[in-house]
Amino acid sequence: MANAKSSIVEYRGLGRRKSSTARVILRPGSGKFTINNREAKNYLLSDLHIQDAEQPLVLTETKGQFDILVNVRGGGLKGQAGAIRLGIARALLLASDTYRAKLKPAGMLTRDARSVERKKPGLNKARRARQFSKR
């Protein structure tokens, strides 16, 4: 009875986007989607963000087959949705390697490396210089 919890099947995936990090757990179930102990619709608010996060499930036609538990930190809602999307895609690969054929061409397994460029000294922003006056 000590190892009763080990019989539960779950697949974990880590996703990052901008300054957001999402830890995703997929369990076979009814399709419940929970983000930071709140229902996904109450957390992400916008339908576009929810569609973005659920895209790997729609591509692999597994929406409603897994319960999704997500712990996400940092960034805004758009970055968090992108991090959740990558985490779900990586967890789906652990569930079945046959999903790679659908996820890879759609770019779901690629980490978007773009992030905010740092501000440089002597400039107003990362690249914006002060206005030049000839006279």
From TrEMBL:
- GO biological process assignments: translation
GO molecular function terms noted in the UniProt entry: RNA binding; structural constituent of ribosome
Please indicate which superkingdom the organism of origin belongs to: Bacteria
What SUPFAM superfamilies would the database entry show? Ribosomal protein S5 domain 2-like
Q: Which UniProt keywords apply?
A: Ribonucleoprotein, Ribosomal protein
Q: Where is this region: Disordered?
A: 112-135
- Composition bias (Basic residues) maps to 121-135
What HAMAP family does the database record attribute to this sequence? Ribosomal_uS9_B
Which protein family is it in? Belongs to the universal ribosomal protein uS9 family.
Please identify the protein, giving its name as recorded.
Answer: Small ribosomal subunit protein uS9
